[in-house]
Amino acid sequence: xxAVEIRGAFGLDNLALAERPDPRPDSQAKPGEVLLxxxxxxxxxxxLLTVLGHxxxxxxxxxxxxxxxxxxxxxxxEGVTRVKAGDRVCPIFSQGWIAGAPSRDKARSNLGGPLxxxxxxxxxxxxxxxxxxxxxxxxxxxxxLPCAAVTAWNALTAAGIxxxxxxxxxxxxxxxxxxxxxxxxxxxxxxxxxxxDEKLERxxxxxxxxxxxxxxxxxxxxxxxxxxxxxxxxxxVEVGGAGxxxxxxxxxxxxxxxxxxxxxxxxxxxLKLSLVFMQRIRLLGIFVGHRESFEEMNRAIDLHKLRPVIxxxxxxxxxxxxxxxxxxxxxxxxxxxxFE
Length: 340
Fold this sequence. Notes:
By secondary structure, the chain is α/β, with parallel strands linked by helices. The protein has helices spanning 45-52, 104-107, 139-143, 145-158, 174-185, 197-205, 220-227, 242-251, 274-277, 291-304, 319-328, and strands at 2-6, 15-19, 33-42, 68-76, 88-91, 122-126, 130-132, 166-170, 189-194, 210-213, 233-238, 252-260, 282-285, 310-315, 334-338.
């Protein structure tokens, strides 16, 4: 089978299209395994950091990157009852995190590092680490669900967002657009930020009530307060990190929450802690989610026939170009790699 590997050292120059032996379920050693023919994979910012060596510079190589994808079940091993041949399924991000609280051991089962990921024509996955996808989604759309969608879903549910609340989303990457869609599904108002007016026009078309160009309005926290009659938002979906956190705090209402998800604008923040505790702001660390939350989210997607936003698709041979597009930051929605 063909697979994309990070080979020898980190960096985009070390992404290589390789031939690997076709995997097969091992019913004797590992009952419950399933063979997937992968149809599409999607990129997350974590995947770019992994390729560049910034996520875990001690990661052993070679590694097949990417944690997100969709495949068709083509063979099941002994004891498999959750899926059957022909089912379309997504592998979950943390293969060992089925339900309950996260743990260090469960984090060692993450696809795309430390385990080989989804940029391969075939994968063998334990049946417990699979989720069936809503039938109305295309392969590209389904491939975008395991990290970005589940992360956004858990950010909103952890904050208890309900109808009438206000949510702030940053930028137009996968997590932010899923958060916008889910917030609207829940009946919440959404305010969005971006550095480009054309992207703000698109999020307004998706249902956001207001858009703020953060380059033109660097003190956008104050602008958010103006838009909410001086109150602030109930939740900020914080994907920027250190560079945006102070403005996020200023944009949050008394007793509101900030879901800490990404670090696009840096990791090391200097904050006035009084801004947090004097307003009883909750800082929620969100790290994707377990299989049960994925299945819960899929029921909502299926019921409302929600469709993920896809930026562009690349064939497997052009995987480097897909990563370069993510690194350039001009995308709107999810970047997909296909296996046709």
